[in-house]
């Protein structure tokens, strides 16, 4: 069947604001076709073989009354709460066990039938028997209350989960900050150690250079001292030895001769040897010398007297 024929058939089933699609052996809801008729607010899909509603079904926000009884629905879309105008919903005789949490947002819902569904205990208790109009209205009210409680629990659980995730994130961030702080401290310590190492190496190099310079200075001083000592030695060695004066030698010889003569004269004149033959000429010479000296003394005295007269 083509899309146009579907639309044509759907038009044939529309009466005013209602469309009757019951007993059509449908396995799925013609959502696209229903969306083309926004004035249709009442849809009867009962007595078909529909197993699920597509997510797009929740976009049919113009719907007011929907009959899905006697189908094979095992679940409803998560966004079922988007049908804000829905007032009447018949889900009798399906395979539902739970309702989506968003069901609590159907604030316009006034009538609900959930009997003959394998509902979970809490939901079944809230739904009641739905045997008449009054019970179906009560079912709508109580089920909405039940779903709102579930919604609050879900919201509370979500908040707790968000808080827990936030706390975990905060702890992760704190650990990350601590790790980054440790890494910064480690880098800072490494830089300080590297700087200290370079400083020690610099000081060691400086001390080695100073020691080399000191050693060089001492070596130069030692060489200088050795050079000065060598220069002095050379100067001393190169200093010319005084030449012996011939005159001095002659003078010394004469002095020795005179001393010898004086000794001989003293021996010959003062000892018993004066009568010996070799002493006679010596004594004569001594006497002549003494006489000559006396004469010279007289001459010298006369010369002094004359000088005094001239003064």
UniProtKB/TrEMBL annotation:
The chain crosses the membrane at residues 246-267. Residues 204-213 have a biased composition (Low complexity). It is a single-pass type II membrane protein. Keywords: Coiled coil, Endoplasmic reticulum, Leucine-rich repeat, Membrane, Microsome, Nucleus, Repeat, Signal-anchor, Transmembrane, Transmembrane helix. The keyword Transmembrane helix applies. It is found in: Endoplasmic reticulum membrane; Microsome membrane; Nucleus envelope. Residues 170-203, 214-223 have a biased composition (Basic and acidic residues). One of its GO terms (cellular component) is nuclear envelope. Pfam families: LRR_1, LRR_8. Residues 170-237 are annotated as: Disordered. The keyword Phosphoprotein does not apply. InterPro entries: Leu-rich_rpt, Leu-rich_rpt_typical-subtyp, LRR-SigEffector_domain, LRR_dom_sf. This is Leucine-rich repeat-containing protein 59.
């Amino acid at each position: 069947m083509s899309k146009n024929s579907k639309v044509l058939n759907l038009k044939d089933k529309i009466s005013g604001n209602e469309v009757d699609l019951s007993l059509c052996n449908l396995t799925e809801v013609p959502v696209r076709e229903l969306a083309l008729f926004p004035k249709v607010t009442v849809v009867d899909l009962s007595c078909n073989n529909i197993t699920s509603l597509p997510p797009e079904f929740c976009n049919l926000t113009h719907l007011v009354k929907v009959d899905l009884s006697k189908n094979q629905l095992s679940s409803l879309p998560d966004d079922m709460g988007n049908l804000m105008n829905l007032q009447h919903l018949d889900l009798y005789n399906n395979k539902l066990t739970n309702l989506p949490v968003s069901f609590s947002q159907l604030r316009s819902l006034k009538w609900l039938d959930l009997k003959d569904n394998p509902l979970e205990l809490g939901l079944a208790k809230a739904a009641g028997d739905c045997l008449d109009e009054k019970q179906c209205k009560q079912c709508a009210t109580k089920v909405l209350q039940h779903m709102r409680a579930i919604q609050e629990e879900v919201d509370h659980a979500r908040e707790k989960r968000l808080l827990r995730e936030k706390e975990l994130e905060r702890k992760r961030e704190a650990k990350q900050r601590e790790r980054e702080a440790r890494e910064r401290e480690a880098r800072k310590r490494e830089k300080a150690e590297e700087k200290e190492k370079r400083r020690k190496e610099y000081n060691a190099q400086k001390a080695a250079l100073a020691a080399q310079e000191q050693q060089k200075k001492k070596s130069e001083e030692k060489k200088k001292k050795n050079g000065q000592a060598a220069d002095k030695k050379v100067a001393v060695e190169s200093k010319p030895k005084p030449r012996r004066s011939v005159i001095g030698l002659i003078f010394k010889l004469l002095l020795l001769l005179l001393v010898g003569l004086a000794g001989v004269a003293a021996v010959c004149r003062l000892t018993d040897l004066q009568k010996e033959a070799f002493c006679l000429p010596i004594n004569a010479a001594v006497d002549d010398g003494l006489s000559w000296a006396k004469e010279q003394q007289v001459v010298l005295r006369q010369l002094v007297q004359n000088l005094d007269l001239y003064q």
